[in-house]
Amino acid sequence: MARVQSAAMRDGLLQRFLRYVRVDTQSDETSKTFPSTRGQLVLLEMLKQELNELGAADVQMTKHGYVIASIPANTRKTRVPTVAFLAHVDTAPDCSGKNVKPIVHRKYNRRVIKFPDKPGLTLDPATSPELRTAVGKDIVTASGTTLLGSDDKSGVAVVMTLVERLLRETKRKHGLIRVCFTPDEEIGRGVSKLDLRMLGADVAYTLDGGAPGEICWETFSGDSAEVTIDGITTHTMEARAKGMVNAAYLAGKLLVALPRERCAPETTEERDGFIHPMSVEGRTERTTVKFILRDFELKGLAAKRDILRGLCRGLQATEPRARVRCKIRKQYRNMAYWLRKDMRPVELAREAFAAVGLKPYDHVIRGGTDGSRLTELGLPTPNLFCGEHNAHGPLEWVAVQDMESAVTACIYLAELWGRKG
Ligand SMILES: [Zn+2]
Known about the structure:
about 425 residues; alpha+beta; eight-stranded mixed sheet; four-stranded antiparallel sheet; about 35% helix; about 25% strand; binds zinc ion
């Protein structure tokens, strides 16, 4: 049975969440600073202060803005693994996060939700069927013109409430717990400046997932590629005589040659990977095409690199006067490669979820998480649910009771780890 929480407790979590979503923390991939935007530091400062007020130990903000704190161990066992819980403070660049006006819809009853700031926009169980799981719950949405920022302020509110509860409920025995709030996850830089020795955890969880019970421990592996095509520019009136080579045309040829029917995000699903041209920029003289390459298996990813390199070589051969370069960079790797060697972090999460009345289920992510990188670096980090739905757009919503379930599940998870050692 799920444990029943008092209204005051739920409101504590809700008030926290409403406070966080009002801060504009949109990240910016064109920024050269870290964190990429000022707004994220505003929220990170707030979180640091809140951790101090709650009585967390070792509260600190690193020079890059990561906010880290401890809940000291209260078990007599001496070799209990240190568990970290992480959530990211930034919101996606895809949709405005400025002046978010959260609206609480108490006791949801299958109705179609309308938005005061955008007449015509509706959140409808017909097109968002997950709403049916929220009947009777309290739902939060934005007002129509912005995202809500539940991705990942739900996770932030869950982790902060976890701190409050573990510090108060001293009868719950656990080892050292570390919490960490990170910036810039949405632009793929979330853990690039995080010092893992400073974090000092043996296992970690990101709270950045969907419906109650969800556990993600498999992600894509990802590479990025940049193809630069140098042509020859002349005045158009003497282009034929002077031998113009139009790089823009060549970029078009490259795009047409891609195996789009079986290898694009819009033509694949489930476990199939893809090659996706993200942007094309240029002119006659030089055109640059940026790609992302994705696959669950390293072999599949290597095959996609070969396809792209092969197409570039072919293009070069058909037009020797041009110069075609293809630069491929590693981004992140499927966390399952490491987790399969030791499934305890996943198994204990499943056990904790079941113990608090949730049905654990695996969700394979067609993307990466901060945990993909952390796991590769040696810190196993599956991702757990915190109630996010319709992320990155104005129809985003979260149920307060789902966030509360995540808190309850994480408390139990901390206790389960506390029995090890
Ligand atoms: Zn997220």
